[in-house]
């Protein structure tokens, strides 16, 4: 009896575990490998495939069925396996929700459900599994928010939720996971800012949040988070090795404190809206192997300290606004496999010691910059390089013969430069070439016959050069959709689809004479151009502007103003306000267009408005593109316009906007026309309904942030075509809410249709024109989103959250540069192989 009593609990436990496993099997709907057939009564359940038990008590401790092509839903009876320590069902096809009963597995240490099709939310009661050290649910279809209760799992070492559909913000409670080493949250729909509490994770070595919608303005010089790159990033553990924040919506600057992450090996910040310089301190990250900061708005020079990253293998700073020279210190990065500096404003010659880095094997992209000089002969050292791009620069001279030593090249793009001479015969060694583009240069001579033998060549662009002679008809030249030769008037022959003229049997035999004539003509032409430029320069030097209304003060009589405005006729009326009207006029003396403001001095406050405008005009010149920035930050004393609206922006004949009507302007000074708040209020409500910031209606003091609000509304109006006073905004909504609700997915719906009309572009390469258009459309859509975001940030209700006009100008200039920067045609080629 005693023996029976002691064994009965074990028997009951065994039965419970067996029933739980059978219920799990019952939910399996697909078993291509017949794994579940072994789960039968012919053997003890502890011998079933994937089941591990305690030897002593015969209780299930592990259930491991990964990579077995199982499908079905997860049985809630798994929660009855009370001794379970490890559950691994990864890389199958389980679907539906994760049962709440998993929260009863109090001994569970490892939960691995990655690479399935699980949906629903993450069970919040997993926090009851206090022994958990590994939780992996990556690559499923989970949605909802990350449960804040997970912050109770103090033993957690590795948490992976990336590649799901999770939303909401990162719970601050995750900062309590003091043992956490890896946090993977990338590729979800997370929003908001990174919690300040995560700096407590002193053991963190891998942190990834790329591919979300994390946003915010990153503060510089403050010890708090406003995104993922605040200065207090230096508070992260120095043991962190992987920091990935790419492809979010991060504003701000990379902080100098990044240099404290001395063990960092991967820094990935691509695809954000980061401003400012690349910090000099990046050069102190001596263990850094991969540095990605492409597709941002970074400016300034590339610091020389980057050459201290001697372990660097991949560097991507493409698509920014970086300027200056390519630092020669990069030659010290002897392990570099990939370097991308394209689509910037880099200038000067290409350093020979950099282009000669023999370690480069994946790609070297210097295209779309302003690089000058010759292609260095050191390029011949790139024997292992696969892709080389120097398109759209100002490189000149002959193509170096030793370019043929780059025998591993698959893509060679030299287009849109000033190269001259013939294609070197040494290029015949590049038999692995798949794409060759030398278009838009000054190359001459015959088309090399060796190109016919390049069996891998899928794209050849020789267009817009000075090639002559017979075009071959074999090899790549048989495919008109892969060969482009237009713009070479002296080429003939080839297949009919190339539309070249037939070759004359008596083609010129005296090449030397023709070459001599060409050289003489070129020399004479250059001399003539140089002489003309000298004459123009001397004429400009002698010319003195005497009557320019834009740069000198004209003394105008009342009669001349009367004639200029057609006696202040209604046809010349531009607009009217509280204190007067503005008329357009044309001066007889020089034909210049002017704006004339007529004050009604009988109106109360008109005199003070007149004095304010005179004082403002005396201190500034506001016919510049950055008018508001100039008013707020560049004058001796800051000036607030107070009434920014469409009717106060006048367009000249070049469609350049000029800020006008300073009748309500306020100068922030103690010794100049500095009215007290009571005096200011005597002029009534500052600004115009719809454009005036909400705080002015509450009696708040005037500030430059009021102008910022008006500018934001003006920006939203320009790009939506909707006024803030439209009828649709009468019932509780407004223009700000209308735009905010549409971003980012419905930006096309809210954009003024006139702005969406396609511009006609010259398509040089026919088979990739569609790719170019797609790239162009993607770029415009991205820029539209950025512009609307600036408008929203400027017109936010809270004054303290608005941007400064100096930051607005920086971002708008960056957007302008991105929008009007030429799209590289070879971008469409790269992705097709």
Automatic annotation (TrEMBL):
<keyword id="KW-0677">Repeat</keyword>
<dbReference type="InterPro" id="IPR051809">
    <property type="entry name" value="Plant_receptor-like_S/T_kinase"/>
</dbReference>
<keyword id="KW-0812">Transmembrane</keyword>
<keyword id="KW-0433">Leucine-rich repeat</keyword>
<keyword id="KW-0732">Signal</keyword>
<keyword id="KW-0675">Receptor</keyword>
<protein>
    <recommendedName>
        <fullName>non-specific serine/threonine protein kinase</fullName>
        <ecNumber>2.7.11.1</ecNumber>
    </recommendedName>
</protein>
<dbReference type="GO" id="GO:0005886">
    <property type="term" value="C:plasma membrane"/>
</dbReference>
<dbReference type="Pfam" id="PF00069">
    <property type="entry name" value="Pkinase"/>
</dbReference>
<keyword id="KW-0067">ATP-binding</keyword>
<dbReference type="InterPro" id="IPR001611">
    <property type="entry name" value="Leu-rich_rpt"/>
</dbReference>
<comment type="similarity">
    <text>Belongs to the protein kinase superfamily. Ser/Thr protein kinase family.</text>
</comment>
<dbReference type="Pfam" id="PF00560">
    <property type="entry name" value="LRR_1"/>
</dbReference>
<dbReference type="InterPro" id="IPR000719">
    <property type="entry name" value="Prot_kinase_dom"/>
</dbReference>
<keyword id="KW-0472">Membrane</keyword>
<dbReference type="InterPro" id="IPR003591">
    <property type="entry name" value="Leu-rich_rpt_typical-subtyp"/>
</dbReference>
<feature type="domain" description="Protein kinase">
    <location>
        <begin position="484"/>
        <end position="781"/>
    </location>
</feature>
<dbReference type="InterPro" id="IPR011009">
    <property type="entry name" value="Kinase-like_dom_sf"/>
</dbReference>
<dbReference type="InterPro" id="IPR017441">
    <property type="entry name" value="Protein_kinase_ATP_BS"/>
</dbReference>
<keyword id="KW-0325">Glycoprotein</keyword>
<dbReference type="InterPro" id="IPR032675">
    <property type="entry name" value="LRR_dom_sf"/>
</dbReference>
<keyword id="KW-0723">Serine/threonine-protein kinase</keyword>
<keyword id="KW-1133">Transmembrane helix</keyword>
<keyword id="KW-0547">Nucleotide-binding</keyword>
<keyword id="KW-0418">Kinase</keyword>
<dbReference type="InterPro" id="IPR013210">
    <property type="entry name" value="LRR_N_plant-typ"/>
</dbReference>
<dbReference type="InterPro" id="IPR008271">
    <property type="entry name" value="Ser/Thr_kinase_AS"/>
</dbReference>
<feature type="transmembrane region" description="Helical">
    <location>
        <begin position="512"/>
        <end position="538"/>
    </location>
</feature>
<dbReference type="InterPro" id="IPR055414">
    <property type="entry name" value="LRR_R13L4/SHOC2-like"/>
</dbReference>
<keyword id="KW-1003">Cell membrane</keyword>
<dbReference type="GO" id="GO:0005524">
    <property type="term" value="F:ATP binding"/>
</dbReference>
<keyword id="KW-0597">Phosphoprotein</keyword>
<feature type="binding site">
    <location>
        <position position="597"/>
    </location>
    <ligand>
        <name>ATP</name>
    </ligand>
</feature>
<dbReference type="Pfam" id="PF23598">
    <property type="entry name" value="LRR_14"/>
</dbReference>
<keyword id="KW-0808">Transferase</keyword>
<dbReference type="GO" id="GO:0004674">
    <property type="term" value="F:protein serine/threonine kinase activity"/>
</dbReference>
<dbReference type="Pfam" id="PF08263">
    <property type="entry name" value="LRRNT_2"/>
</dbReference>
